[in-house]
Amino acid sequence: MIVLGVETSCDETAVAIVRDGKEVISSIVYSQIDIHKEFGGVVPEVASRKHIQKITVVFEEALKKANMTAKDIDLVAVTTHPGLIGSLLVGINAAYAFALANNIKCVAVNHLTGHIYANYIESDFDFPVMALVVSGGHTELVLMKEHYSFEILGQTLDDAIGEAYDKVGRVMGFKYPAGKPVDDAAHLGKPVYKLPVYENMDDYNFSFSGIKSGVLNFINKCNMKNEKYDVNDLAASFQDSVTSVLVNKTIKACKDYHAKHIIVAGGVAANRGLREKMTDAVSKIDGVKLTFPSFKYCTDNAVMIAVSGYFKEITNK
To answer: How far is the C-alpha of 276 from the C-alpha of 272, rounded, in Å?
Structure first.
């Protein structure tokens, strides 16, 4: 089955063609990061307008790179939620119009299931799977007992982890998007500062608003007292605190539900600190596999949507 995926949930305009949920035939991504940098974050109106300008071109490039026409496509999969409504509508209208014009079935895909299935491209799933979904807008622990079966065990009570990175990075002086700069700085420092973070191990929920405020208060107090602090050490302290919570809760959920496979998905899956800490923790558990997506599949892309759409179709869900 050849699936054409469409992704426009935020600030990437992406179209990809994938065969049988594994073979990536083509993948085109137009990113708007440089455009939104000057605003310090994604501006929804600007994002949707850029999608309109690029969506047709990206469709054409994906088909051209695959050396295919619409007649070769068996299924169209498109992100319908969650995301920025204006951006989503561009992709939805384009995907359904393409499908209708060419008499192809079109399926709606949840953006987060796409992130989870980005892992499948390079590694089969060993069920039960425990998926940690970490991105700019989401932080969730999801149990999968079989393909396209998703049970949300826990989620963020306020800020998502990626959002926390961007906000903390901003007060540290890093430009948007701040996730990678904070990660890089953390590897140059040591976690010497004590920061508040939600560590309730009685549930699987997360909260990162407290540590965000904690970093801001720490910097303000230092400035008021004319005391110096090391930015790299502060970044290391922040990263050590938040990644410890992510890893500890994921490991707890894995043990509680006897998962055989831990998946880390979403943009923050590219974070080196999280990868290192999760790898170390899982290495101490017998019989549990750990996978991360390739870096190119951590951020938003249409390959993951095509793969997710493929499994939604073959499982009839």
So the answer is: 6
Cα separation, 223 vs 2, in Å, equals 58
Cα separation, 56 vs 76, in Å, equals 15
C-alpha radius of gyration, the chain, whole number: 20
Say whether pTM exceeds 0.85. Answer: yes
In sequence order, the 6+-apart residues with CB closer than 8 A to the CB of 208 are 139, 156, 158, 159, 160, 161, 163, 164, 197, 198, 242
The 10s digit of each residue's pLDDT in 174-206 is: 998 899 999 999 999 999 999 998 888 899 999
Please report how many Cα atoms fall inside a 13 Å half-sphere around the Cα of residue 113, on the Cβ side: 23
Q: Which CATH number fits domain 2-117+298-314: 3.20.20.190, 3.30.930.10, 3.40.50.1820, 3.30.420.40?
A: 3.30.420.40
